[in-house]
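Quick illustration for those who missed Monday's session on complexes.
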Amino acid sequence: MKLKGWKELTPGAVITEAGNAVQFKTGSWRSFKPVWIEENCIQCLFCWLYCPDMAIKVRDGKRAEFDYDYCKGCGICALECPGRKGNKAIIMVEEGK
Amino acid sequence: MAKIVAITGNEAVAHALRQVDPDVCAAYPITPQTDMMQRFSSFVSDGLVKTELILVESEHSAMSSCVGASAAGGRVITATSSQGLALMWEILFIASGTRLPIIMPVVNRALSAPLNIHGDHSDAMGARDTGWIQLWSENAQEAYDNTIQAFRIAEHMDIRLPVMICLDGFIISHSIERMEYLEDEEVRNFVGEFKQLNPLLDLGHPVSYGPLILPDYYMEYRKAQDEVASKVSSVVLEVAEDFEKLSGRKYGLFETYRLEDAEIGLVIVNSAAGTSKDVVDEFRDRGIKAGLLKPRLYRPFPYKETGEALKHLKAVCVLDRADAFGGSFGPVYLDIATSLYQYKKKPILINKIYGLGGRDYLPEHAELVLNELAEIAKTGTVKSYKEYISVRE
Ligand code: SF4
Ligand code: SF4
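Prediction with iron/sulfur cluster bound:
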């Protein structure tokens, strides 16, 4: 992305384009990556609710894949995931392993 | 038609605020400002203004409320003094950096410790580099006039910066003087409707305030702010011209008094300038070419214009009602020295610290200083570049 010069900025650093966080791919921050184990998933959608980066996709009302462009690997989804009978449906795996 | 009244500085400014009828006022009491906001609160409870009054629990909250209300899209005011201004410190930078046109009369008072409630300039001088515009006022009339003009300056679409209007605690805030009011309608027409810029409450155009700006952009935002500062002088003059048409009273970036052909001169802000002008007259009567410069727009400081106005003098004394501890000289001295530095031929410049914590500034003090300047102009020798005056050994 080409950086703007000082003449092109809005006064007081106000952000005037709503939802422009989409331009900022936080996926590159990740050191741990959440992995979905579909057979343990009970479709409670807690992960979708808790994810601070909207990085869990929902398709037709159902839990779908992670969006790794924006998932920063915070691990909240893995912590909140109840899974099935004590078996987590999300586990965190170290990147590059 | 102007109405002539006998009035205190606090009351005069409170009436200016009433006439503007801002959207939001956040108020917290502190001597000697208290009675200004108290009067304004009565205007609210008497239904004379439509202002939403927020009674906060501290000045930090007062300024924070102002930031929120201003970002939301309102015309916003508060007022403070001394420790109150000091407590606002953090948020002052947020107001200016976010480019919010908040208006704040500052009734100048000394800072603790030692505790003192009387007038000096330590409070607002300490806040001189917070990015706020500062207008200083000699008397109730100037405080009233500056308050009204401040709205136009702050809200100008090329500026959008907060403004402090400084007036001396007790000497001006609580003494009764003759003053001319403008009619309510004249003031309302002069300041005009408040124009919003990216208001938070415009739900059709959602915006975010206060983002984190990292090293890749922070300098660009600062450069943009510096550029805005460079435009303030011309807007101040433009507004002053319109104000003169309305009131007949003339304002500039600073006031010069018998300065054009002067050989020695005083630079002094606010109420003590009045006393000094009388003494300048006495020296003129004795054939000594004395003059005076009284800064009005102190931030952003008009270095070029000030330097031009002073460079022909032989000797100048800057009188500071605040000291810049560790900076060796008082704050106004430092700015005057900077404005003169680029000239090859320039006056010898000395600094006197006076009137701290409400210590009286008397005609004989101005007289002593002018005598010393006359001597310096004649001999070229300076005994001391900086000195406290009217202080016991
Ligand atoms: S790790 Fe954090 S960011 Fe990534 S999907 Fe889970 S909750 Fe969202
Ligand atoms: S929180 Fe776990 S169980 Fe619930 S939908 Fe997400 S992955 Fe499935």
